Every structure is written in C-alpha cells, then in structure tokens.
C-alpha cells in the first residue's frame, strides 16, 4: 500500500514538472508581457518622464490625471469620440454579422464560397483597407459618391473629410471588416441542438417562433462573447487615425488610443500617456463589468453542460 | 400530410429568398474591393475624369510594373514574412504546449494560472503598449530590430489561442491517452503522436489568427521599425501614400498587391478553418 502511494506521488511530481515545462513560455509571457506591464503603466502614470533614462523619473502624484480631466485639450473629447464610434461599430457589426451568419446557415448552394467572400475583408491588411476606403469615400471620384450622386442623383457627401461623418464612416469600415464575428456566429448556429428545433417544428412552432425561442437563447453565450470582444477591440481603435485621418477633421476622429500614441511617441510625455492608458483600462473595464452584470438577465445557460 | 407538404414548400421559398439575399449582400461586400481593383487599372486622368466610369475603359495591367518601381512590394513582403513566419510557428507551438498542459495535466496552481490566462484575454493591448515599448527600447535596446515584434509570440501565442487549443483537446477522448500511457508513452509522445494529429484544424485556426493579427498590427511595427529597408507591407504602404499624394492609380496598385498574401493564406487553410472553430464549441 505505501509503495503504491509513493509511486503515485512520483507520477504526480513528474506530471507537475512536465506541465510547468510546457507552460514556461506562457508563464513568461503572462508575467513580462501582460501583468507586469499592467502594474508598470499604473506606476508610470504618477510620474513625469521624457524617455531619457531611468534616473530622470519625476514623481508628480495625481497631476497627470488632474490634467487629463481638467485642462487637457484632447482627452475628454477623445473619450466621447471613441464611445460614439464604438457604439456604431459594435451595434452595426453585431447586426450585420448575425444576419449574414443566419443567411449562410440556411441550405444554400456553394456555402463555403459565400462564406469566404464575407470573411475576405478581415484578411486584408488594415492599412491597405483604410487607404482603399479613403479613395472610396472621395467626394468627387469615389464609389460612394458615384452611387449617391450618379445613380440616385443626391448631393455629394464628404464622409471622412466631414467632421460630423468621419466616425460613422470609419465605423462602417469596421462593420465591413467583421468577418471573424460571422465565422464565430456560424459556428454557434451549427451547435444549436437540432433536436430542439425539430421538436418545436413537430409541435407546430413557426420559423419565427423557433428563431426567437430556441436559436437566440442557445446562441446567447456566443452573442455575449462576440459583443464583449467587439467592444474591447473597438474601444482600442487606432489604425484608421494612424493610417488615414491623423485624428481629423478637427478632433472628430482623435480616438483615446491615438491621444495615447501622440502623447507617448510624438510628445514623449510618457507619464501623461500612461495616465491615458490607465483611464482607457478603466473605461474598458467599466463597459466589461456592465456587460457581465446585465448578461445574467438575458443569457441563457444550458446548465451543467460545460 | 398536406400541412407537411406546404411547410416543405414554404421552407423552399425561404431558402430561395435567403440565397438571393446572400448573393445581394456579397455583391455589396465585394463592391469596395472591385472599386479599388478597377482604380488600379486606370490612368489618373481616367480616375479624375468628370464622368467617373464604373468599369475601367482599358484594363491597364501595365500599371502594376510601373507601381513596383516606387513600391518595392517584394522586399516589403519578404520583411513581413521574416516577422510573421517565425512568430506564427512559435505562437502555434507554445499555444499547443500551454493548451495541452491545461487540458490534460494536474499541477499545482493550475486554477490560478488559468484565471490569469483568461484574464489576459480581456486586457486591452493598448494599455501595455508603453511599458513594453520602454522594455524593448530602454532595457533591451532592441528598438530598430524585428525582435520586439517576434519575441512576444514565443511566449504563449496569446491567451485566446491557448484557450482555443485547450477546448479542442478536451473534446478528444481521454481513453486514447490512457491506452498510450499503458503502452509506456510519456506526455510528449502522447502530445506528438495522438494530440497533434487530432487538433490539426485548431492549429490552423490559431495560425491564421496569429497571421491576421500581425498582418494588421501597424502600431507596433511603426514603433520599432524606422528604416525604409526594413519596412513591412503596412509601413511601406503608409509611406507610399504619403509620398505620392494624388497618384491614386499607383496607390491602388499597391493596395491590391498587399491584398493578395492574406487571401492566398486563407485559401490554403480555409477547409480546416471553419471546421476548427465549430469543433472547439466556443461554448463558454
């Protein structure tokens, strides 16, 4: 008996060792690329630092935060712009990708081909996408004004050059790019238990009833996941500002991430930029918590299953 | 019986309507790409004519060699691949190792580590951008090299990918491993001879996700690469646009060229791709 437990212990110990061996890269990553930097950014936000060497840190307390919330010319507006952009991009891409996924889930010929078309935009390099769309949005020679003006005869629209329209215009690009959401929705739809749907059909439920009472509840964890990821991704938006608009016209596409980038890497005010990062962390955290808190009321769980 | 037949007919009509809608939406989805492509085949005079044509008047494929003179696409592609290939391989391998440990092994601190992994999925990457920049620049003095872009992928390949692999391995029946254990196989033998062949689809998903992630990552590339000789496609394209201003014909050529590699990569892996995501379940 004791011999046996000894053997078991040795086995467990060796498993312990192997597991840590497998996890070394991940643990290094978690420590040095994720959680330590998170602490550092909190720390850095209480200092003033120009990036010149580690002996030049200057403790300034809450000054960076006070500046952001009072006299800073960009920060507050950037939060508003980012939330506005995120709202349109998230709502738009959730609706678009759910509709496309539902359509692709029907019995239609050459499904793989159509799926590839909707996924395609997601595979194009972001810079190329924004360059291309900038041209599509061109007031005189772009695709959209071709449709608006030539096909329908309506007045031309400025899109990314119009302060009022730049955020929705960029959000439309985000909707176009949401092929990854479609694929995840499709995967979810294929996991909706066929037996439920068939049982409901036998009981005489219409397709609309089946959709609302079976498909949507079964899909709710996936809807939640997609919503959360879309929210986190879009709140961090920076590429369109970096590649295309440079925050303009005016400040109407100066997203929080872009303010962070400019403070850190153009003005070399690393402390102030770190404070922007912390505020962004809090902003995203608040949205995440709200989403988690409300999810209990609308998320359907199968109970026991995973 | 009658109602069943009418229901069948109804189903058929719905499917037809859906198919028409799919064709319509995919046409809308492709329209931007068509406009960019058609612009790459026109002269600037044609692009900036009063009456904008929908189809290129003459298909000027000769625009491409002309654009290549100022836009060294092949060099940018080579540079991009120098970063992406090792990162995708390392990211996939380390994600498989991590996912395997979480799915199959018992060890101290497993729960805690798993919570850390899941937590980092929700951590915005922009938040840690500055400390990482300081680490690579002021501590390791690697700014100006590709290492800050590659090395992170040797460290776990991203939390989501570890999670994805773990979910996938959990669907493989444990009896298979146990049988191999009785035959005297160790953990690594089991991983290589049983697990890896069974999770090929998930590995392709992870590789594709890593690929698109790096492909789109303008900000990190712009922080660490400053010399034109070392530019990636994203950086090259940014600069090309700045230097040409109004030569849209050439810019659209460059844009179209940079569309190509992602499409090719997807076509190679696409059979496994959706299957991979479906099989992982993505339930919780």
- DSSP helix count of chain B? 14
Q: Radius of gyration of chain A, rounded? A: 25 Å
Range of strand content of chain B:
under 5%
pLDDT below 50 for ≥5 consecutive residues: which ranges of chain A?
none
Strand count, sense and barrel status of the largest sheet of chain A are:
2 strands, antiparallel
Q: How many discrete domains of chain B?
A: 2
Overall tally of structural domains of chain A: 2
Explain what you see.
The complex is a heterodimer of chains A (306) and B (284). Chain A is mainly α. Chain A folds into 2 domains: 1-42; 74-298, MetI-like (MetI-like fold). Chain A is 71% helix and 1% strand. Chain A has a two-stranded antiparallel ribbon. Chain A is flat, with a radius of gyration of 25 Å. Chain B is built from 14 helices and no strands. In chain B, helix 1 packs antiparallel against helix 14, helix 8 (159-170) runs parallel beside helix 14 (248-280) and helix 11 (200-215) runs antiparallel to helix 14. Chain B has 284 residues and is mostly helical. Chain B has helices at 2-40, 44-47, 63-70, 73-104, 110-121, 129-139, 147-150, 159-170, 174-182, 187-198, 200-215, 218-224, 233-244, 248-280.
Helix-strand blueprint:
The complex is a heterodimer of chains A (306) and B (284).
Chain A: H1 2-44, E1 47-48, E2 58-59, H2 63-69, H3 75-104, H4 111-119, H5 126-136, H6 143-151, H7 166-176, H8 179-190, H9 194-202, H10 207-235, H11 239-245, H12 256-266, H13 270-298
Antiparallel strand pairs in A: 1-2
Helix pairs in contact in A: 1-13, 3-7, 3-8, 3-10, 5-11, 8-10, 9-10, 10-13, 12-13
Chain B: H1 2-40, H2 44-47, H3 63-70, H4 73-104, H5 110-121, H6 129-139, H7 147-150, H8 159-170, H9 174-182, H10 187-198, H11 200-215, H12 218-224, H13 233-244, H14 248-280
Helix pairs in contact in B: 1-14, 3-14, 4-8, 4-11, 5-8, 8-11, 8-14, 9-10, 11-14, 13-14
């Amino acid at each position: 008996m004791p011999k046996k437990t000894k053997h078991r212990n040795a086995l467990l110990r060796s498993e312990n060792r192997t597991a840590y061996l497998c996890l070394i890269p991940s643990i290094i990553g978690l420590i040095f690329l994720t959680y330590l930097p998170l602490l550092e950014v909190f720390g850095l936000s209480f200092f003033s630092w120009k990036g010149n060497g580690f002996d030049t840190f200057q403790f300034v307390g809450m000054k960076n935060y006070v500046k952001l919330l009072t006299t800073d010319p960009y920060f507050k507006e950037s939060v508003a712009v980012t939330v506005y952009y995120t709202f349109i991009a998230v709502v738009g891409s959730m609706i678009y990708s759910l509709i496309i996924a539902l359509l692709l889930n029907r019995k239609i010929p050459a499904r793989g081909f159509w799926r590839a078309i909707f996924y395609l935009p997601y595979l194009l390099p972001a810079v190329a996408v924004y360059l291309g769309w900038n041209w599509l949005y061109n007031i005189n020679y772009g695709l959209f004004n071709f449709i608006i003006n030539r096909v329908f005869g309506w007045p031309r629209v400025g899109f990314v050059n119009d302060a009022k329209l730049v955020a929705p215009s960029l959000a439309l690009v985000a909707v176009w790019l949401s092929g990854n959401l479609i694929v995840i929705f499709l995967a979810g739809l294929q996991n909706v238990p066929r037996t439920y749907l068939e049982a409901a059909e036998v009981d005489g439920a219409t397709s609309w009833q089946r959709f609302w009472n079976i498909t949507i509840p079964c899909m709710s964890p996936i809807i939640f996941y997609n919503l959360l990821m879309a929210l986190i991704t879009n709140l961090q938006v920076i590429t369109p500002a970096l590649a295309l608009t440079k925050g303009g016209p005016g400040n109407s596409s100066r997203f929080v991430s872009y303010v962070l980038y400019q403070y850190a890497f153009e003005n070399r005010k690393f402390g102030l930029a770190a404070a922007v990062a912390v505020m962004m962390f809090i902003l995203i955290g608040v949205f995440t918590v709200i989403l988690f808190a409300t999810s209990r009321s609308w998320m359907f769980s199968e109970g026991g299953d995973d | 019986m009658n109602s069943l037949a009418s229901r069948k007919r109804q189903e058929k009509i719905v499917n037809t309507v859906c198919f028409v809608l799919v064709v319509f939406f995919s046409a809308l989805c492709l329209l931007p790409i068509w406009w960019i492509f058609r612009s790459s085949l026109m002269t600037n005079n044609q692009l900036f004519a009063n009456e904008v044509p929908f189809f290129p008047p003459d298909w000027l494929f000769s625009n491409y060699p002309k654009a290549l003179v100022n836009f060294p696409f092949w060099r940018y592609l080579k540079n991009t691949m120098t970063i992406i290939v090792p990162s995708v391989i390392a990211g996939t391998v380390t994600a498989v190792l991590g996912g395997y440990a979480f799915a199959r092994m018992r060890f101290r601190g497993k729960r805690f580590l798993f919570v850390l992994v899941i937590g980092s999925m929700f951590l915005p990457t922009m938040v840690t951008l500055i400390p990482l920049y300081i680490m690579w620049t002021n501590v390791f003095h690697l700014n100006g090299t590709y290492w800050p872009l590659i090395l992170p992928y040797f460290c776990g390949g991203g939390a989501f990918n570890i999670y994805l692999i773990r979910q996938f391995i959990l669907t493989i029946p444990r009896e298979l491993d146990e049988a191999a254990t009785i035959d005297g196989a160790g953990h690594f033998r089991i991983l290589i001879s049983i697990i890896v062949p069974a999770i090929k689809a998930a590995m392709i998903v992870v590789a594709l996700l890593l690929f698109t992630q790096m492909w789109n990552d303008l900000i990190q590339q712009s922080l660490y690469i400053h010399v034109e000789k070392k530019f990636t496609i994203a950086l090259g394209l940014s600069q090309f646009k700045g230097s040409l201003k109004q030569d849209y014909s050439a810019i659209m050529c460059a844009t179209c060229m940079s569309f190509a590699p992602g499409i090719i990569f997807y076509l190679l892996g696409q059979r496994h791709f959706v299957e991979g995501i479906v099989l992982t379940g993505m339930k919780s």
